[in-house]
Every structure is written in C-alpha cells, then in structure tokens.
Description:
Layout: E1 7-8, E2 21-22, E3 25-29, E4 55-56, E5 75-78, E6 81-84, H1 96-113, E7 117-122, E8 125-131, E9 137-141, H2 142-145, E10 151-155, E11 161-170, E12 175-180, E13 204-209, E14 221-230, E15 234-237, E16 249-251, E17 257-264, E18 271-275, H3 277-281, H4 283-287, E19 291-292, E20 305-309, E21 315-320, H5 325-329, E22 336-340, E23 343-344, H6 348-356, E24 363-370, E25 373-380
Amino acid sequence: MRASRPHYACPPAQAVTARLYSPATPGGDCPPLQPSRPLCSGIDRCGRNPYGAVFFMRRLFRLWLIGLPLAAGGMGVVSGRELPVPGAVKAEGITLADLQQVQRGVQAMLPRVSPAVVVLRHRQGTASGVIVSPDGLILTAAHVTEEPGKRMNVVLADGKVAVVTTLGLDTATDAGMAQLRGNRRDWPHVPLRRHTGQTRVGEWCVAMGHPGGYDEDRGVVLRVGRVLKHSANGLQSDCVLMGGDSGGPLFDLRGQLIGIHSQIWEGREQNMHISLAPFFRGWETLKDGGVIRVWSSGSGGYLGVATVMDETKGLTVEEVVANSPAEKAGFKAGDRLLRLDRTEIEDDTHFSRLIKERPPGDLLQLRIERGGQEQTLEVLLGRKPSSNS
Length: 389
C-alpha cells in the first residue's frame, strides 16, 4: 500500500509475481477481454495494472504497450478500454503510429540495457542499481549505499552474486555510487545522456528495476511512462515505482540513462528520480569515496567567456579565456549567444545562472550567431579554476 507521504523506494516489498492485475478487480486475476481493436499487433489481452504499465522480461516480446499512461484527451487506452490517466501531461493526438514507435524503441533498447540492471542487497531489504562502465561502476541512490567503504552483495542479471564496495554519496540529492570488486573489465553497461539539459516534459521514458528483489522467473521489471517535470537535480515521471526499485535506472527510448529512482509518492505523477547532473558534478568526489552534503552556489560548471548585453537579442562574447572550455569548443569574440540547449538567453545574469546550474562535465549546445549566420557549438563544461592557480 502506498503511503500518502513521500518515502524511499527501497523498503522490503511483498513478493512480486509475474501476474498482472485488472483495474476493475484489484488483486484478482485478469478476466478474459475481447478488445474492440488491438492497441498494437501481438499484444496480450491481459496486462492491466491499477498503477500503470508493469512489464516482466519473459513476456516482453508479446506484451508491450498495455497499461501505458497515455494521455489522449485525458484518457488512456488500455487493451481496448479507456481509463482516466494523470492530467499533469497532456499529449493530444497520440496515434497508433506513435505507440508503435515507442514499442520499437523499447524493443531495440531492452536487450542492450537489461543486463546492466542489478539488485543490491542491504540491511533493510533489496534495492536496484545500474552498471555504467566496463570496469563495473554502479550508479544507485545514496540511501541505498548509506556510507562509503562497506561491502554489499549484488545479484546480476543472470542470477549470479557478486560483491561491491560502496563509494561516495551526495546526501543533498541522494546520488550514490558503488564499485564491483575484481579485475573484470567487460561488464555490461549502459550509456549516459550527457545533454542533461535536453530532457523535456512529455518525453517518453522507461523505468527498470527489481522490485521485491531478484526473481529468476520474472526477470527485470520494465515500466513505460513520460517525464512530468525536470530540474537541475531531479526528474519526475509517471512511471510506477515499487519497493525495491530505489537506485534503479530511468532511460530514454534510445537506451541512454537519464535518471536514478529515488522516492515514491502516493500518486504516480510524483515519482522522483535523481537526474545525472549531481553525478556529473561530483563524479570524481563520489568515485573517491567522498561525501557531499551541500553544494555551494559556485559548484557549477565553467565556460570561460566574458559577455556584454546585445542591443537586439542575446549576449555578445567580449572575450574568450585562453585554454577554457569555450576556446576549445571554438567560441570567438564577437559571437552572439542566443540559446543554451532549448532555453532563450535573456541577459547576462540569466546566462550565468544557467551555467552554474549545470555540472562540470556536462555537454551543452549553444546556439550562436557569427557573421550573420546561426550555428550550434557543443561545449563540455569544465571546473572553475582555483584563484590560486
């Protein structure tokens, strides 16, 4: 039963079976249903769940888009029936072609990412995590790892048990890391979305994890939803989260990691995920086992340009600092800065805030005007040089 207040998603949960339930009869087996028209070819007739889309690995290739929280005029099509869905995101005019595109995306990314989704066993029960490097670095939630330097057992996708050492954690954002022990350098791993600022409201996303712990018959659990809100440090989606999902991955449809599960609220519109920005911002500190408690206002990324307000729109670059990220990206004095990712640049204060909100190591796209022609430059933010250097 989901509490009315926010809570972390990792407490022990009752065993999750491979059975899916009907909204009409919560807790009961799904009765036969004869849909008036199929939502997608090859769809299973049963698969409705009172909380949305919950897919189990061994049924995925015949049960895809059932129970998706799709908003079409405020209703969602669930295996031929229409059910109310959250109103936070309205996507008018969703077509069968749109749903088939989502299905193709999920089918393509699933075999690539599922081997990297793991179970972490800790004192309170089980949680999830995801491997992000060939040498076995795991991203998870800080409340799962709790402290640096301790040993935890991890269950891999094939059911084998390995050992990890917990690394650093960010208590302000709930970002945590762990490292698989040993000399293996070919762990299955997932790519990270470097453009954290490109996450947009309404974007399709896929939540994965092992709620209730590892289950060989069920496999990893997959849920499809959409991004409802995003900020510098967090994401909100309507993907269902359950006990044991904490620390698990949130992907885009290309299989790129965009977030880590953190908290559950009563409504599925309020599930909270850690964005990758806190990980990028504190990457070296976390890998070295450091604990981050508060980020100062100066902890953001560094670009290396001096700007002045333009009389028409945007900012004009007055100076490019030598050996700075801006110089390496090809910025020149006289360039007019128009947009950072999808955000129009209002003034120098606004631009400075946008840069400070992004972590070192984040990849930005800046739309500029040079010689009367617009172009886009990509820049990898650095760390602000120390005043003593």
